[in-house]
Write the structure tokens for this entry.
Amino acid sequence: MQEELFALEANKTLDMVDCPMSVIILGCKWVYYIKVKSNGSLDRYKTYLVALKNNQEYGVKYEETFSPMAKMTTIRTMLAITAC
């Protein structure tokens, strides 16, 4: 797990910050799974940090738990489509 956190910080996709006292904290958990190739051999290990939405109130702070991310290949494809 430490290796994953170091990788996230090295890629500048995660910043650890102190939480202000006025913020309601939602829990989170790590989801682990193993990707395998079509022949059944190990491809790689994957992890995701997901928010536990069971502590949310309906309509309150929904937009703050979503973090949109796009891969560069997606951005390049969209730019290529709009340039044509």
Q: What stands out?
A: The longest strand covers residues 42-51. The mean pLDDT is 78. Residues 2-83 form one domain.
